[in-house]
Amino acid sequence: MTTTNRNALLIAGTHSGCGKTTVTLGLMAALKQRGLAVQPFKCGPDFIDPTLHLLMTDQVSRNLDVRMCGADYVQRLFQTHAPLAGDPPQSNQTISIIEGVMGLFDGGQGSAATLARLLNLPVLLVVDVRSAAESVAAVIKGFETLDPQVEITGVILNRVGSERHRQMINDAVKQHCQAKIIGALPRDTQVSLPSRHLGLHMGSEVELNRQHLVALMEEHLDLDLLLKIAQQRQTEPALQDKKSLPASPGAAKVSLGVARDEAFCFYYQDNLDMLAQEGAELVFFSPLHDANLPEGLNGLYLGGGYPELHAKALAANTSMQADILAFSRSGKPIYAECGGFMYLTEAIIPADEQQYPYPMVGVYPVIARMQQGLRRLGYRQVTMQAATILGSAGNQCYGHEFHYSAIGTMPKEIKRSYVLDDGREEGFLRDNTLAGYVHLHWGRTPEAAQHFVQMMRKMR
Question: Which of 63, 285, 316, 318 is 20 to 30 A (C-alpha) from 182?
Answer without folding.
Answer: 63
